[in-house]
C-alpha cells in the first residue's frame, strides 16, 4: 500500500521557500501517528527542509545526485528505486514535495491519498496536483474548527483509488 500524505490549502498550496506555510499541531500529531514505524519517501528539498531523519521511521531521500549521502537515511535516484527499497514494507508513505507527489500520482504508483485540507488560501510557490474525483473516491472525512492550538479550520480526508 502506497499512500501520499500531505497537508494542502484550499488553493492546493503546499509551501513557500521550502517551508510549511502554516502551523497546525493537530496535523503534525496525526502525521507522526500515521507514519511512525513505516518507510517515508521524500525528495531531497523536503528532507533538507526537515533537516534530519524523522524518529522511528525509515527515511528514503529521492535525488538525482548519485553522490548524495545523509547519515541514517537511504538514498534513491528515482521514485521507482525508492519504492523498490521499501518493497518489504506493507505501508509506504510519500511525504513530499510537490514534484514527487505529482510524479507518484501521474505514474499511477499510489493506492490512497491521506490529505489534511487547511480551509484557507495561502500564497505559495509549490502546489499539490488537483485531486481527480474520477480516479479518487473520498472514503473518510473528519472536520475540525480552529481552536487555541490550531489557527485554521481543517479536515482529515482519505481517498482510495476507484476501481475502473
Short synopsis of the structure:
This protein is an alpha/beta fold and 164 residues long. Helices cover 21% and strands 33% of the residues.
Q: Give the mean pLDDT.
A: 95
Beta-strand residue fraction: 25-35%
Number of helices: 4
| Main beta-sheet annotation | 8 strands, mixed
Distance between the termini: 18 Å
Class inferred from helices and paired strands: alpha/beta
- Name of the CATH homologous superfamily: Dihydrofolate Reductase, subunit A
Q: Looking across the biggest beta sheet, what order are the strands in?
A: 5-4-3-6-1-7-10-9
Number of strands: 10
Kindly provide the radius of gyration, computed on alpha-carbon positions and rounded to a whole number of angstroms: 15 Å
And the CATH topology?
Answer: Dihydrofolate Reductase, subunit A
Element-level helix/strand string:
EEHEHEEHEHEEEE
List unreliable stretches of 5+ residues.
Answer: none
Domain unit count = 1
Structure description:
This protein has 164 residues and is of the alpha/beta class. The chain has a single domain, classed as 3-Layer(aba) Sandwich (Dihydrofolate Reductase, subunit A), CATH 3.40.430. The chain has helices spanning 25-35, 44-50, 79-85, 98-106; strands at residues 2-9, 13-15, 39-43, 58-62, 73-76, 92-94, 112-118, 126-127, 136-144, 154-161. An 8-stranded mixed beta sheet has the order 5-4-3-6-1-7-10-9, with helices on both faces. Strands 2-8 form a two-stranded antiparallel ribbon.
